[in-house]
Design a protein that fits this description.
The chain is an alpha+beta fold and 365 residues long. The protein has 17 helices and 7 strands. Strands 1, 2, 3, 4, 5, 6 and 7 form a 7-stranded mixed sheet that branches. Helix 6 (168-181) packs across helix 8.
Length: 365
């Protein structure tokens, strides 16, 4: 049985000088020989990352770091070793020396990514080179690798390498912090589509959710929704600003539903479900959803969710769509299933709904 490998904590310095960044080439004979990395090393027992970084730079290069500032942290599995790297931005007034016979190179940002960097260091380098890298770095600093593995199983259409592993409450909190303390970075991030990571899309969604102006909110959604590629991001956020002018919101929902794009349609149905099943209800609302014809699973699931919710809030009016079989058989049966599972519907009504199930779940009405 394979012994579980420990994760080794490592501190690394992103040392800048006149727009250049210092990297160290690993010597022959070591793992990842001749690849480049940011200077640093392993933490000793009971040592903080910052203290380890200062010590390693003093021992390996004879320099004193000036005011190291935490940048981000990354988990990486190299196969032979697992590491947890804490990266710090730093400067020095000293000239680095190759005290351990390593090759030190000052590279500008355009040269940095052309070097053969160790994989984890390359991720950090990409964040540095990208003007919005500090936003991604913030997400990485909250990384939970096992949670990323779990998330990947729920979203099989996304590649694991594009999932950092950050919990939704942390992303929501981060969006609020960015909006309040770094509004310029938040605004720039909203116009930097497409994103690479699943969590970047979720952050984008939460930032739109912080927008109070309805017109701007709708414009941001028009830009963003074509890039949404999974049900989780689509369903994660709601937009309070859409509750201001319901006529404008209804027009936007119609626009999304008619787009034909899976997650735009899904979000459009979600808008109708959130804003138009209570005070602003009329039969044109469920008509809109019933008339959608799609082979997309995530569209059909949202249709079923809509009608299950409608049955809990507007039972008599919504039941007519079940009685008259206005939905395709799959959506019809799924809506009944979800309604029967709801705690908001009485047992008497659940028994009635069970009687309307269609025996053969066909895909055509």
């Amino acid at each position: 049985m394979e012994t579980e490998r420990k994760t080794i904590p490592v501190a690394a310095a992103i040392i800048t000088q006149n727009d250049r960044i210092l990297v160290s080439q690993r010597p022959i004979g070591k793992a990842r020989a001749l690849q480049y990395e940011f200077p640093g090393g392993k933490l000793e027992k009971d040592e903080t990352a910052e203290a380890a970084l200062i010590r390693e730079c003093r021992e390996e290069m004879g320099i004193e770091l000036k005011n190291p500032v935490f940048f981000t942290s990354l988990n990486h599995d190299y196969g032979d070793i697992r590491v947890f790297l804490s990266f710090f931005l730093a400067e020095t007034d000293d000239e680095p020396m190759e005290l351990e016979k390593q090759n030190l190179v000052w590279a500008d940002k355009t040269e940095l990514l052309s070097l053969d960097l160790c994989p984890a260091d390359r991720l950090a380098a990409e964040m540095i080179v990208d003007p919005l890298g500090k936003v991604t770095a913030g997400l990485y600093s909250m990384q939970d690798v096992p949670y990323g593995d779990f998330t990947s199983k729920l979203l099989p259409n996304l590649e694991r390498r594009n999932i950092i592993g950050v919990r939704m409450p942390e992303i929501r909190k981060y969006a609020k912090q960015l909006k309040k303390h770094d509004p310029e970075a938040a605004e720039a991030f909203l116009h930097s589509l497409p994103h690479r990571y699943y969590e970047e899309n979720n952050l984008h969604a939460y930032l739109i959710g912080e927008e109070k102006d309805q017109n701007k909110c709708i414009e941001l959604m028009r830009e963003f929704l074509p890039y949404v590629d999974n049900w989780s991001t689509c369903d994660t956020f709601s937009l309070k600003a859409l509750g201001k002018d319901k006529k404008k919101t209804l027009s936007f929902a119609d626009e999304l539903i008619s787009s034909g794009e899976t997650y735009s349609v899904r979000y459009g149905i979600g808008i109708l479900m959130k804003f138009f099943l209570k005070d602003d209800f009329d039969t044109s609302i469920p008509d809109r959803v019933a008339d959608i014809r799609s082979e997309e699973y995530y569209v059909r699931m949202m249709q079923a969710w809509f009608f299950a919710t409608a049955l809990s809030l507007r039972y008599a009016e919504s039941l007519e769509y079940i009685k008259n079989r206005r939905l395709c058989a799959w959506v019809h049966n799924k809506a009944i299933q979800k309604a029967v599972e709801s705690r908001r519907i009485s047992e008497e009504r659940k028994d009635e709904l069970r009687g309307y199930r269609i025996g053969a779940c066909l895909y055509e009405r």
